Amino acid sequence: MPFVTATLAHAAPSGAPQSAPAGEPSPAVVELLQRDQPPEGVVFEIIENDRAALSALLPEIRANIAHLREHDPYFPVAIVAHGAEQFTLTRGEAGQHPGLHAEVESLVRDEGVDVSVCGTFADWRSIEADAFAEFVDVADLAPDRLDDYRELGFEIIRLRPSLLDAPEEDPWEFDFGTP
Question: Which of 132, 157, 161 is nearest to 75 (CA)?
């Protein structure tokens, strides 16, 4: 899946990671829609040492998209996952996570959401780019992909599962065991 091709202006990322109750939009999404000039799009960044993080965040992501699209049905949205959660999107994990794969594929196909993972982190785990489901775009470097979105005027909103869903850990201390 190709990276967003629109040409847009620059926007700064939001500060702290955001979290909302399941089915509710994130505080950062509510805030950005109250601005006089909203960003050109939104990227939800996920970087966790928890393979279940993407699945835990999907209700919030869906609520965010619905809230954004109430104001603009074509509002550009992307997801960049570059922690352990990205490995649940490999073809080999489709059997273990069929609901997750179906939901993420639906976001791409039906909602026009770009979903990217980090090829460098995958390579560190000896996972080739073609191991990911076809609806996922494998970026060479996720931080570079985030910079590309910033240059297009997207707001980066870091999402984290609630402390009930995942322990508070340093996202850079990843488990480098087998995916």
Answer: 157
Strand partners, 132: 90
Instruction: Give which of 99, 87, 94, 100 is closest to 128, Cα–Cα.
Output: 87
pLDDT tens-digit map of 48-75: 999 999 999 999 999 999 999 999 999 9
176: pLDDT strictly greater than 60 = no
Q: Measure CA 111 to chain center.
A: 14
CA–CA dist 2, 157 (Å, integer): 21
Distance CA 66, CA 88 (A): 24
Angle at alpha carbon of residue 169, lines to 84 and 15, rounded to 5°? 90
Report the DSSP pairing between strands 154-158 and 41-46.
parallel
How many CA atoms lie less than 13 Å away from 17 in the CB half-sphere? 15
Q: Give the pLDDT score at 17.
A: 46
Report which of 133, 145, 67 is spatially closest to residue 104, judged by C-alpha positions.
Answer: 133
**The whole model's pTM is what?**
0.81
Beta strands in the chain (DSSP E): 41-46, 77-81, 114-118, 137-139, 154-158
Instruction: Give residue 24's pLDDT.
Output: 80
Residue with the bigger pLDDT between 3 and 114: it is 114
